[in-house]
Design goal:
Number of strands: 6
Shape: elongated
Oligomer: single chain
Radius of gyration: 23 Å
Strand order of the largest sheet: 4-3-5-6
Length: 135
């Protein structure tokens, strides 16, 4: 698999340009990377800065763009958190519907499970964010 030097997207070995941003998929030596923190330039094959350990960004003469793989991971994480909150909210709504129908036991268990799930996800999210695991 070839990695796009501009957006970081994975492309097939036979592709000559990125299917996402249409950038040329030439040899890695044709582009440079820069550390956003200490501004040190590296070859296109490098992934992290030797000085500070930060992820490198693709360097362009006019500007540089951050590695897209970190943005893709952040976007994927955002959807995960959104789903982890939406599913328990749907459980609360369904619990209220079951209680309105007269099925109190099922409705109460749905609501309790949903509230506990939201609390657990919130506590885990706060712990991971405080440890620096989450962006």
């Amino acid at each position: 698999m070839k990695t796009c030097p501009k957006c970081g997207e994975l492309n097939g070995e036979n592709r000559s340009e990125c299917f996402k941003c249409k950038a040329s998929l030439g040899a890695a030596s044709t582009y440079k990377k820069i550390c956003p923190k200490c501004k040190t330039l590296y070859s296109g094959k490098s992934e992290t800065c030797e000085n500070c350990g930060n992820r490198l960004a693709v360097y362009d003469d006019n500007h540089y763009s951050h590695d897209a793989s970190s943005h893709a991971a952040a976007a994927g994480g955002c959807w995960m958190y959104l789903v982890s909150v939406l599913i328990p909210i749907i459980g609360i709504i369904l619990g209220c519907i079951y209680i309105a129908r007269g099925e109190d036991d099922l409705g109460k268990s749905l609501i309790i499970t949903s509230v506990v799930t939201i609390v657990v996800f919130t506590v885990i999210g706060v712990l991971l964010a405080s440890c620096g695991v989450l962006g």
